[in-house]
Amino acid sequence: MEQSSTAASAAEADRKRLYWHSRRGMWELDLLLLPFLEHRYDELGEDDQASYRELITEEDQDLFAWLMRREWPEEPRRRRIVQMIVDYAESSGHGHNRGL
Asked: Chief localization class (predicted)?
């Protein structure tokens, strides 16, 4: 029982860390990243979760260009997760980037 409690605590700490790293200095990025994290991240496979964790280490200006579809990442894994976030935003009503 104690092991599962420890694992749950570790998972909760990881999730909080992901949440805070997903919060950015730009409101537009928060509107895209946080709903994706809250509603889709847990459904992703391990590779896509790893891609998301890598993505949020990028600079805000790069994330902004990618998530606003002004540019696409060159790296295929990164391009895939960016596309997933954009698709989720547009299909879920979180697509606040349409007017930007």
From this structure: cytoplasm
